[in-house]
Design brief:
Largest sheet: none
Number of domains: 1
Number of strands: 0
Radius of gyration: 17 Å
Distance between the termini: 24 Å
Helix content: over 70%
């Protein structure tokens, strides 16, 4: 149980913390200091390094989460905050998969073709979706940590 909890929390720290850093710290600095072509290459490399970690997180998080429901005799008997956390996590995973297979794929294709304006458009789509996922991730952490105290 302890290892499952540790891997569960570590996965979330990597995913949500990585999004927070990228969205709140790296994005504004890159936007203010780098020309569009350089900025787009930076993001391609950043996403290329970060997204494999997200894939690990979206595999480990549900697997460890299932293990963590054993004190409740399974997910069906888990408290409401576990169901809310799980629902938010599934939405986050679906958003990530969309980012990965649609705008990120197109971003790479446009950069390879030298189409900077089209690549910038895809980066903007990613920015919006990562912003949404960062908010959902923060909400999920709040539900996960405080939910049992405030939700029935």
């Amino acid at each position: 149980m302890g290892l499952s909890l540790a891997l569960h929390v570590l996965s979330i720290i990597i995913w949500v913390g990585g999004m927070f850093f990228a969205y709140m710290i790296l994005r504004p600095v890159a936007a203010s200091q780098l020309e569009p072509a350089v900025r787009l290459k930076l993001w391609r490399g950043t996403f290329g390094s970060f997204f494999p970690w997200v894939w690990v997180a979206i595999v480990l998080t549900p697997l460890t989460g299932i293990m963590l429901t054993s004190p409740y005799n399974g997910f069906g008997n888990s408290p409401v905050h576990i169901h809310i956390m799980t629902t938010l996590g599934i939405i986050m995973m679906l958003i990530f998969m969309h980012v990965y297979f649609a705008p990120f794929k197109k971003l790479k294709q446009h950069l390879d073709a030298g189409d900077i304006p089209a690549a910038a458009g895809k980066l903007n789509q990613i920015r919006i979706l990562v912003g949404i996922n960062t908010l959902l991730g923060g909400l999920t952490v709040i539900v996960a940590t405080a939910g049992k105290y405030y939700l029935l």
